[in-house]
From TrEMBL:
It holds the Pfam family Peptidase_M48. One of its GO terms (molecular function) is metal ion binding. This is Peptidase M48 domain-containing protein. Keywords: Hydrolase, Membrane, Metal-binding, Metalloprotease, Protease, Transmembrane, Transmembrane helix, Zinc. It comes from Palpitomonas bilix. The chain crosses the membrane at residues 24-45, 65-84. Residues 120-190 are annotated as: Disordered. It comes from the Eukaryota. GO terms for biological process: proteolysis.
Length: 241
């Protein structure tokens, strides 16, 4: 999990979000400029047999035709811009993976997880028990019963604390065993292994194609194939050694 967070922080460190915003803005401006240019060309309407009058009224009369033709003519441009955006996105993913490998170094969990402090909870519990005890003492009014009630309350309080502590230690022990079983704890010298495991799990859950055709990747993939990313991670680890 932490390795994936480091990957996302890599996008922030390399300013990928701002670069994508600038790229999208430039593409939008280019598209609008070409669209406005094509719409007002008289030859566009005449090419499909639509005669328009001179002036603003003629432009408005043929606007529905020229607008549709302009969208069709600019279709290949959107394909080219999408190819550029996909290539940039794949490059950004490699850079974010490299940042995660370089900055994230997993360390094993401590042998003993300290229990949470329950001072405030104990104080409120003792206050409520004291109030109950005082009410009970007021009703009984006898010294022997008072001492017996206090002893029973202290015994019950001790049993509750012991039971709560045992349950907490048991839950922590189960959590530690589950974490170790799933292989979430990595040795500090195995850089990149946490990210590789996370990417492999995501790829398996999404049923990704492990060996897509390079042309299909070039036209459609915004993220590199999983095998290419794992290979790039290994190269980054070797560079750090």
């Amino acid at each position: 999990m932490a390795a994936v967070v480091a990957h996302e922080l890599g996008h922030h460190a390399y300013r990928h979000i701002y670069l994508n915003m600038v790229n999208a803005l430039l593409q939008l401006l280019l598209f609008l400029y070409l669209l406005s240019t094509v719409i007002f060309l008289p030859a566009v309407a005449e090419a499909v047999g639509v005669k328009r009058a001179e002036g603003e009224e003629g432009i408005k009369s043929a606007l529905h035709v020229t607008f549709y033709i302009a969208l069709e003519l600019l279709g290949p441009l959107s394909v080219l811009t999408s190819l550029f955006s996909h290539a940039c996105s794949r490059l950004f993913e490699y850079q974010a993976d490299e940042f995660s490998v370089r900055s994230y170094s997993p360390s094993p969990l401590p042998e003993r997880v300290p229990l949470l402090k329950r001072d405030k909870a104990d104080e409120s519990f003792r206050a409520s028990e004291k109030e109950k005890r005082e009410k009970r003492e007021g009703k009984k009014g006898e010294g022997v019963e008072k001492a017996t009630g206090e002893k029973q309350d202290e015994q019950e309080e001790g049993e509750k604390k012991q039971t709560s502590k045992e349950k907490m230690e048991e839950s922590v022990s189960k959590l530690m065993k589950e974490v170790e079983t799933r292989g979430e704890v990595e040795d500090s010298d195995k850089k990149g292994q946490a990210l590789k495991r996370a990417l492999s799990l995501l790829s398996a859950s999404h049923l990704d194609n492990l060996t897509p055709h390079p042309l299909y990747v070039f036209f459609h993939y915004t993220h590199p194939p999983i095998l290419n990313r794992l290979e790039a991670i290994d190269k980054n680890v070797k560079k750090l050694m």
